[in-house]
Amino acid sequence: xxxxxxLERREEIAGYLWVxxxxxxxxxxxxxxxxxxxxxGLTDWNGVGALHWVGLANYxxxxxxxxxxxxxxxxxxxxxxxxxxxxxxxxxxxxMLMNQPLKGMRLLRTIYYVPSVLSGVAVSVLWAFIFNxxxxxxxWLLGLVHVPAVPWLTSSFWVVPALVVMQLWGVGGSxxxxxxxxxxxxxxxxxxxxxxxxxxxxxxxxxTLPMTSPxxxxxxxxxxxxxxxxxxxxxxxxxxxxxxxSLFYALNIYNTAFQDLRxxxxxxxxxxxxxxxxIVSAAVFRWSRAWVYYAGRKETPA
Length: 302
Prior knowledge:
This protein is mostly helical. It has 13 helices and two strands; from the N terminus they run αββαααααααααααα.
């Protein structure tokens, strides 16, 4: 290894100093809590008493004798299957509309983006009123077209779709990211496609989607991670009901830790959630090799 010059060493030290606040924050607020959670998952602890080492007993119980674990996995999975495709398509569609050179478009972009930055608690309270069966505006609108009122939050069938609709209200966050991807597509590609006789649909398939595929992948990963962390909506509106039909995985961890005071068991649940997130994200990245386009990337020979 070549010896660094005095100037290069000073630049290296300066670089480490600049990134040190982030490194220190990462160690204190992420790495150490993660390590503590991994260790607590091997214990039986109520938060105040002595730690009792139980090894893998918590994990054996989770997979063999905990119906709430499987129920929370089911609820989270259903939510992901319903929400992710809709959020990707709706966010991309809104971005294409907001990318048009029309008057007042900046105001519309702001209006669509604002819901994504509002407090989760405030939004949940607002949607609780919207979904209320007695005086909610949604059932009132359905009544105008003679559609019977829907028990959005009191039906095991409708509660997850209702939360999906609520979550889609904040799709403006992904819309802004898509908009940045769309505006980075070279106009020369559209002009060349038009000269070759490609219509709107053909240009979408051959130019827009390939060139924005990295942005789509980014939103897909963020959406996946977000669905595993759904908590506020269910906690504020349904508390996991009715009949555990909205018991999301994160809510199950919270109830186990702070209501049942089984912090060791909850840490084991959190460790499993971390492992699932890493595995699913890695699988998506591997799958993305088949459809994500990066300009200038060299393809690996088969």
